[in-house]
Amino acid sequence: MASNHLPYTPSIVDRIISWVDRQRFPAWLYFLAIYLFYLFLSQGLAWLDQTAPVGVFELQKFQTNIWPALTLWIMYSLDKLALRASENFRPLMINNEEDYEFKVFQLTHMPARPVWILSLIGPLTVIISFVFDLGIITFSDRTILSLISQVIIFWVGFSLFPIFVFHTIRQLTIVSQIQSNLGEIDLFNATPLYSFSVLTSRTGIAWVLLLSTTLLWAFIYGINSTGLSPAFSIGFAVVEVTSAAASFVLPLVSLHTQMEKAKGRLIDEINLFIKSSISSMGSELKNLDPAKASAKHDLVETLKMQQEYVSKLPTWPWKTDTLRGFLSVLFLPILLMVIQQLVERLF
């Protein structure tokens, strides 16, 4: 789609991702650079304010400053997966080329206005922290330069999370819409049908990754350092795991329903052949033609084998390896919470 014919203005996040994608070096180098920038800026502010010894890195800052780079890298990776999935899924779509390109653009680009609105959550969080003294940012004993820099850090950090939530909901909703407008579904050529399951499973895994990073930090510093009760933390982990599972499964429900209907039509066709064959086999027996009746019997047995084969065709659009990989990490947050609780009780 030509840049001067874009259906809407892409968000600042998509502009950053597009810029990274055009560079000659691997994308992960740029996201690593973003992480190191925030790490050194945050630690440098601590040295400037004399809240940490100069030259000594605080372990906590290695985790707290990873969010901007990690969130941007996840959105970049999911957009690349979405592009590949839409290309593989193209043979099943009945859209013309212009509609197809529009859907792909929607799938990989967020509109600018909602993202700008969501970006206001960052400064709003800073203001609320200041008014209610929540301790998110320490305003006392800071230089003007370090205070401004710290506000910018938290602006970006607290804004990217709701933007990622918006990115997830929007992208998976469009996936569901794309899969609801299909041509004929061929269950015997299932590879295109599995295209978007990789994207939805990786989206769920991304949510597990974000939560596991948080829980790992809580595990290192102890549950009391987070200020959260064990019950709340476990409940939060369960909610996140449920959200990850929903991200994987819900966008594929529409396609699953269509695959079920396609499977039902195949079984109905086979049943009609079986009915016709049994009826004609009875006529052959009445006419004392056992050879033809035996041929009809063999045909019925073959049709029954076909019926059994079709009845076992999967109707959830994912490969076994995709499902296995997703399930292998799905319960990681809860496992981390259980280990954390056991360690705290033992020590």
Write the layout of secondary structure elements.
Layout: H1 12-22, H2 27-48, H3 59-64, H4 67-89, H5 97-108, H6 112-119, H7 121-132, H8 144-179, H9 195-221, H10 223-226, H11 230-249, H12 253-286, H13 290-311, H14 320-330, H15 332-346
Helix pairs in contact: 2-4, 2-8, 4-8, 4-9, 5-8, 7-8, 9-11, 9-14, 9-15, 11-15, 12-13
Short description:
The chain is mainly α. It has helices at residues 12-22, 27-48, 59-64, 67-89, 97-108, 112-119, 121-132, 144-179, 195-221, 223-226, 230-249, 253-286, 290-311, 320-330, 332-346. Helix 7 (121-132) packs across helix 8, helix 9 (195-221) packs antiparallel against helix 11 and helix 11 (230-249) packs antiparallel against helix 15 (332-346).
Please tag this protein with its features:
347 residues, 76% helix
Give an account of the 3D structure.
The protein is mainly α. The protein folds into two domains: 1-183, no CATH class; 187-347, no CATH class. 76% of the residues lie in helices and 0% in strands. The chain has helices spanning 12-22, 27-48, 59-64, 67-89, 97-108, 112-119, 121-132, 144-179, 195-221, 223-226, 230-249, 253-286, 290-311, 320-330, 332-346. It is elongated and about 105 Å long. The model is unreliable at 223-228 (pLDDT under 50).
